[in-house]
Amino acid sequence: METVAPFIEVIEEIKEAGAEAHKLCFQCGRCDVVCPWNTVRKFSMRKLIREATFGLTEIESEDIWRCTTCGNCPDKCPRGVEQIELGVSLRRLASEYEVFPASVKSARAVRGSLTTEGNPLNEERSKRADWAEGLSVNPFTEGTEVLFFGCCYSSFDPRIKKVAQATARILNKAGVDYGILGTKESCCGESIRKTGAEEVYTGLAKENIKTFIDHGVRKIVVSSPHCYEAFKNEYAAYMVHFEVLHMTQFLAGLIADGRLTLDGTYEKKVTYHDPCYLGRHNDIFEAPRELLQRIPGVDFREISPSGKDSLCCGGGGGRVWMDTPKGERFSDIRLEQARELGATVLATACPYCITMFEDSRLNLEYEEVLEIKDITEIIEQVI
Q1: Does residue 3 lie within any of the structural domains?
Q2: Dihedral of CA 351/71/252/190: which sign?
Q3: Are residues 74 and 120 in the same domain?
Q4: What residues are paired with 309 via a beta bridge?
Q5: pLDDT tens string 21-62
Q6: Where does residue 185 fall: left (phi above 0), alpha (psi -120 to 50 degrees), or beta otherwise?
Q7: How far apart are CA 207 and CA 188, in angstroms?
Q8: Do 278 and 358 share a structural domain?
Q9: CATH number of the domain residue 182 falls in
Q10: Number of separate domains in the chain
């Protein structure tokens, strides 16, 4: 492979990759102030934007791979610079030149698994529906009211399978007419797209869209905020529109309609972590809190920061597949905040958040003092 110069003049390529808004930046620095990386190490999104403005980008740098696409800086930017689009465009260029730092090698390898098996965990597609064995979960057929799309982690990861199984039991209890597509499902593609693999994302999106249309899917309920983002917002570019609900929204509706009742008690001190792609990206803040506050016995405690200012878990933007050194993990900080609050349960509504938090719980030796739960796992215990 040819040696790539540390800096390449790529201003036109950056624009073509979808990041022309970088020229609006007037270097106010608000992006750096709110970036979670600056709670654990020095990092400057402003610097990356400045370099891109002049078409001088260090594509060998690990910095272009740090962004978790948490949405904090676009939310606070006074000029609409579109920092996430800029970061993704730089990753596309790095991918084109085959320049990947050591910490990114694992994320690069994920692309092959997505292409061959339709999931990032290198698991056999034929086993995608195995999580549902013994749970009376039916295949989705045309005319079924709801498609439950559990996501790759819900299908294959041993910890997150428990979330999908709890969800199925709740839906069965409420008498919901739902089904799954099982082996016909593919990864939504949202996260791999954020690593710069646009072609892989396009293939996955088109495959899912064809499958949904062929099966007459109209309403999709998802457990992952990343699937929500893909199906509701990103797939719209292909001129298709499905009704998409996050599971917390759907369950809140079932309770409001009297189809699901919470009869048990859950007498624990619970706090809630807002996933970036559920909260900042899609403004879903109330449904998860409404569910938790309805549960009898819960001592609900609001963690800080929360809502639009919530701390990122560190797993977005494909970072869930990249190596993050000890001492630079946002998830460690979040668990420490939960402990300082006196919470015994940190609840959330995203498989990536759970994955990151479970790793931190082990690393911090918090196994005996703090539980990590998806909201559905708590709901299941009180129905």
Answers
A1: no
A2: negative
A3: no
A4: none
A5: 667 888 999 999 999 999 999 999 999 888 877 766 666 788
A6: beta
A7: 9
A8: yes
A9: 3.40.50
A10: 3
